[in-house]
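#structure-requests
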Amino acid sequence: ARGVLPAGKSLVLVPGDDLGLQGEVTVDPVFGLPAAWVASDVAEVQERQGRTVIDRASVMVTHLSELVTTRADELLSRQAVQELVEGVAATAPAVANEIGSDVLTLAELHDVLRGLLRERVPIRDLTRILEAVTARARVSRDPDGLLEAARTALAPALTSQISADGVLRPITIDPMLEQRLIESIRTGDSGAFLAVEPGLTELFLNAADEQILAAERLGHEPVIVCSASLRPVIRRMLGAGRPHLKVLSFAELTTGPSIEPLGVISVAVENV
């Protein structure tokens, strides 16, 4: 990552139609918002007028933090996972000792943790994660299944992380469309995928984009909720262009927040 921190200036976030602000026009490196570098004395005036002003050090720290969070799955090495498991062994040896055995390999756990980090799911509760994935591994060692088991175990944290004021406003998938997608799931070397007509895939992606943009215009963070078997596939399809997009399964919805559906992804399936 690269950036510029002009000496003696602060970053002022400005509306898209108000870039006449004296200073060097730029873009906030984390959120992609229109901004301008202005002299510190001008920034003080702008702050008193209600604009968001960020000092140089904060811009750098926020940018670095976002970079590490976004690339956390790439930064997590297998050696680091081994050290994390050894840390768990001090308090939960029965669980930690199953890692590296016939139950679950270190490589499989590494893939699970990277999958969680890729979707910005905290892995601090490692004992709970290990309990869930080792239990799942006794039934099936399918990579997607192991990841979903870990997510389900962390469900309360997942829902509380994305519910605003105790309310979760999800985007769902039309039941008929969802059933057709579920019936089209196939498994390959890279995990599950949808074996559907290209036309249906395009229609689905366009309909999903419309609902996501509509949620953003209303000031809500887009959250898609679907069946557990479909969740990994939908996440891979939509996450390629929207790495921050949250996709939950119905199994991950807890009794904590109240649910207020925000929209439905729907296409004319009978015409495809």
